[in-house]
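Researcher: Go.
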Amino acid sequence: MNEELQKIQDQIVVMLRTVYDPEIPVNIFDLGMIYDVDIDDEFNVNIEMTFTSPNCPAADFILMDVQMKLESISEIKSVNINLTFEPPWDKSMMSEEALLELGMM
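Model: Structure:
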């Protein structure tokens, strides 16, 4: 990955760490809800993500928050979010920080 793409990747991670499920006091990145971030050479971003539950009541809020925050990065041309439930989310996808925050470690 070239330096400019790495810079944008880092900015995306920073932004994703500001998105929270209102019911869980941990950001979606550390919860392991982001499966993949792909940036093409024209700075179009494709995000593959999931929710902790297919019936997440905050789904629309979270998706809108991800979209708005990533679109606020000036270099990004477009953001496409692909919602998937394969593989299903489970707590093994959480970072150590998230596990500690939720008292699961």
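Model: The mean pLDDT is 94.
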